[in-house]
Write a structure and sequence with these properties.
Structural class: alpha+beta
CATH architecture of the largest domain: 3-Layer(aba) Sandwich
Oligomer: single chain
Distance between the termini: 44 Å
Helix content: 25-40%
CATH class of the largest domain: Alpha Beta
Bound molecules: flavin-adenine dinucleotide
Number of helices: 11
Strand content: 15-25%
Order of helices and strands: EHHEEHEEEHEEEHEHEEHEEHEHHH
Number of strands: 15
CATH topology of the largest domain: Vanillyl-alcohol Oxidase, Chain A, domain 3
């Protein structure tokens, strides 16, 4: 018997402070909510240098959760962990031919699975628009893995290292199309109960040190948004725009969120979220501005943990409780001791 973090993102290289400050979500958001919901209390050093312990019954706890580090420095936290019998996962995988089928499958049966996420081929178009590989998982029970080693499944170091400067053609439209085709075909049409380790299921990118350098010297942007259930058509439209634009992306994941929480700047809300890595390209800024407009029209929003390009006006159209957050900051830190580039750009 052991314990696992209640919410883990797609990398294990995060701190507890960063997880609270971004109120991160995992593949289990539809059932378990986001990180802050599992924090009983946290210690925060405020602008005057004193430390306060904040519980979920205080407004300042919820300003700090998702508050992007602007309320102070979190020095410790009390977390509720998830008991697990083994450090292995039992994983079901299925290939899904298009986006409508995928969303129907997730709507109908996500609640039967603790963890659920879909990889989408953003270059597929026409009848194959949004074809995907849907992966669901549970912590494996001792009974399920009685013939296998049950512990020590966390590798200490990445197994591969990306070259220091990958050539530009590596992530081009033709190579990405081939990669996506292979990734889709390599997935089983339907497999149930595969036993994998925690890194393979939750943190596959951590296995490649410096994976971000694969995008070459120009780098990439990760675009992540959420739209409410009623904005499902906006999700379809954005996947179509990405396919039409043909920007090469081999990493695009769709998740279903459950309800949000009390934190005014927390990202998740009931609905659909897509996170997509897009190599920097001359037309990218224009495309993303168009996608922003679709997200706003659908009453959705972008995730600040991934943002480097929004402006203050678009942000206020996305976060209806932004004024509440700003008022809280004026009260907590009137001299603005805690600032960041993000806060300056977004007028937080
Ligand atoms: C490969 C990859 C996959 C990811 N997958 C997911 C995912 O599935 N879900 C998800 O939600 N996020 C995901 N993320 C984003 C990541 O979880 C968040 O950005 C997280 O906040 C990073 O934690 P960090 O400790 O590195 O924080 P940093 O990047 O150092 O900081 C992030 C923010 O937290 C603040 N902060 C950090 N430490 C403290 C502290 N002690 N006190 C107060 N404020 C603090 C900083 O000021 C900053 O605003 C992913 C990131 C990567 C690189």
């Amino acid at each position: 018997m052991g314990y696992f973090v209640p919410v883990t993102p797609g990398t294990r290289y995060v701190s507890v402070g960063g997880a609270i400050a971004c109120d991160i979500h995992g593949k289990n958001h539809h059932l378990s909510g986001s990180f802050a919901q599992h924090v009983e209390s946290l210690d925060l050093i405020g602008p005057d240098g004193t430390t306060r312990t904040l519980g979920q019954d205080t407004d300042d706890f919820w300003l700090t959760a998702g508050g992007m580090g602007l309320t102070g420095i979190i020095t410790s936290a009390v977390l509720r962990l998830t008991p697990v019998e083994t450090s292995l996962m039992s994983v079901d995988t299925e290939r899904v031919p298009d986006l409508h089928t995928l969303m129907r499958r997730m709507r109908e049966s996500d609640d039967d699975h603790t963890y659920s996420v879909a990889w989408i081929d953003t270059l597929a178009s026409g009848r194959a628009l949004g074809r995907s590989v849907l992966t669901r998982g549970e912590h494996a029970s001792a009974q399920q893995v009685r013939h296998r080693r049950r512990g020590g499944a966390l590798p200490a170091e990445p197994r591969l290292t990306a070259p220091p400067y990958a050539p530009g053609w590596l992530i081009s439209r033709p190579t990405t199309k081939v990669f996506n085709e292979m990734w889709f075909r390599k997935a089983p049409a339907h497999r149930v109960g595969e036993i994998t380790d925690i890194p393979a299921f939750f943190h596959p990118l951590d296995g490649v040190a410096g994976w971000n350098r694969l995008y070459g010297r120009r780098g990439f942007v990760q675009y992540q948004f959420v739209v409410p259930d009623a904005g499902e058509q906006a999700m379809v439209e954005i996947v179509r725009r990405l396919a039409d634009a043909g920007h090469p992306s081999f990493l695009a994941v769709l998740k279903r969120f459950g309800p949000g929480n009390r934190a005014p700047l927390s990202f998740p809300m009931s609905g659909w979220t897509l996170a997509v890595d897009l190599p920097t390209h001359p037309g990218l800024r224009t495309l993303l501005a168009e996608l922003d407009r679709i997200v706003v029209a659908a009453a959705g929003r972008l995730y600040l943990a991934k943002d480097s390009r929004l402006d203050a006006e678009t942000l206020s159209a996305m976060y209806p409780r932004l004024d509440e957050f700003r008022a809280g900051l004026r009260r907590l830190d009137p001299d603005r001791v805690f600032r960041s580039d993000l806060a300056r750009r977004l007028d937080l």
